[in-house]
Amino acid sequence: MATVSLQDVLAGINQSATSVVDDVIPTISDEYETSLGGQSIFKLLLFLLALMCCVFGVVGNLAVIIAVIYFSNLRNITNYFIVSLAVADITVCIGVMPLAAYQDFIANYTWPLTGFCCNIWLAIGSLSCLASIWNLCLVSLDRYLAVSRPVWYAKKRKLKVVFILILCSWMIASTLSSSSLFTSFSTDGQRENVVQYCILNLESNFVITSALITFFAPALFIIFCYALILKYVMKLSGRVSSHDDHTTIQTTSSHLSSKDIPSGSNKASSDTETGMVVNSKLPVKIQDVPKDICTSGSEELQLRSDVTAATAREVEQESQFSARGTSKSEDVRGATMGYRMKVSRSKERKASLVIGVVVITFMICWMPYFIVYVVRSVCEVSLHLYQAFAWLAWMNSAINPVIYTIFNKGFRSAFTKMIAFFRNSF
Questions:
Q1: Are 181 and 115 in contact (CB under 8 A)?
Q2: 189 located within any domain
Q3: Per-residue pLDDT reduced to its tens digit, 208-256
Q4: Where is the composition biased (Polar residues) (predicted)?
Q5: Dist. CA 92–CA 394, nearest whole Å
Q6: The pLDDT of residue 190
Q7: Is residue 322 part of a domain?
Q8: What's the pLDDT score for residue 63?
Q9: Looking at the domain assignment, is residue 88 inside a domain?
Q10: For position 178, what pLDDT does the model report?
């Protein structure tokens, strides 16, 4: 039986995808071909759309940074990681996308600058990608610790440590991306001053290693962190549901009246959750009166009986007051701490949701590019296919501000106030 190698399988998949992309894109382009300097209206529209995305990405991410700096309710640890991510997105929108748009849509896949500039451009692209994914790794770990160990992490979570971690992520990204300055080639494999198309063209071993370090290993770490977060949240939800059922039973029991409790019962019934006290009594010992005292007259016996009854009532009232006061003070403290913990956990879960959406979007946008990046080192890949997935990855930088606006109430309110301020200013 004939064996099929992995390279043959990848080549078959690449050929199918290439045929589809190469058939569709030129056909659409040819339909809009005009005599505007040899360029098609279709490519011109794509170029303008790319520039609009650049502007939108820069403005949106700048708004994120300004919002965190200006609005005190947004100045927290998680949002500082988001600011670092916004800086990486601005780097893509300014340093990568404009030149890519010119090369792909105006210059007919021809690099307009020198080979050294090509290497710098590729290094900037690698830097922004690496900084983004390393920041996502840090914020995913931050989310896991904040959700799973809130008390312990609140003591360890210092602003200085966060800034050091962010700085380290950028330093690691800079070190790894600097390799592009020495390993980038033109499409014909020659280091020339004039480059036909600025694109990474590396040996397969280096490509696989760099892809693992740059994307796949950090992606697995992020997925692992969010799997643990999901597991913990589901476990916590089960505990909360069980606690609610227990509280309902206790509250129902606390509404029993004193006539429902058997006479002479020495048990004190109180509900520490609601602060309600039900017929709390202390035992009163009744002794037999000697015969000689009884014969001295009914008035003395009546007097002793009244004193005993009054003493019993006083002791019972003091018991009820003491039990009620202690229970209420403990209930207030417990309810306050419980409410604060509940609000804190709710905020952490909402923050984890926002970061989760950011992570999923990042994976969807960048994973196809890195798959093609690896496949290209094994077999030939269509330039149109590579171009399409590269633009999908870069578009992620303009999407993140939209995610913050939709899923984060704090950012949404801040953006609304900023827009109102600029409207009133002009």
A1: no
A2: yes
A3: 888 898 899 999 999 999 999 888 888 877 655 554 444 444 444 444 4
A4: 263-273
A5: 7
A6: 45
A7: no
A8: 96
A9: yes
A10: 84
